[in-house]
Specification:
With 94 residues, the chain is of the alpha+beta class. It has one helix and two strands. It has one helix at residues 65-90; strands spanning 3-18, 21-34. The chain has a two-stranded antiparallel sheet with strand order 1-2. The protein is extended, with a radius of gyration of 17 Å.
């Protein structure tokens, strides 16, 4: 992959149980921009790979609350950006 932009989004704490051990984690999320869309092939424990619009993501499909929070955060950012563009268009500045 050829990455031309890497942006830190947010970190969330998480707790999950594996067998008899409770693990505390800090899950970090980033936005990565690529030069081109890569060809991705599902392998090993990955059944399928999909490219989807963030607004079409159902957060309840993710097991970890940290991932759900990160997707909600990104959706809110995208909505804020869209609203700013719409306001600028209404004011004739875009």
């Amino acid at each position: 992959l050829s990455i031309y932009s890497l942006t830190y989004v947010h970190s969330y704490s998480n707790t999950y149980q594996y067998k008899t051990v409770e693990y505390k984690t800090c899950d970090c999320f980033f936005i990565v921009k690529l030069d081109q869309k890569p060809t991705v092939i599902a392998q090993d424990d990955v059944a399928e790979v999909q490219w989807v619009n963030i607004h079409n993501i159902n957060i309840t499909q993710f097991a970890f609350s940290s991932t759900q929070q990160a997707i909600e955060h990104l959706k809110n950012q995208a909505n804020s950006r869209q609203e700013m563009v719409h306001q600028a268009q209404r004011l004739g500045g875009y």
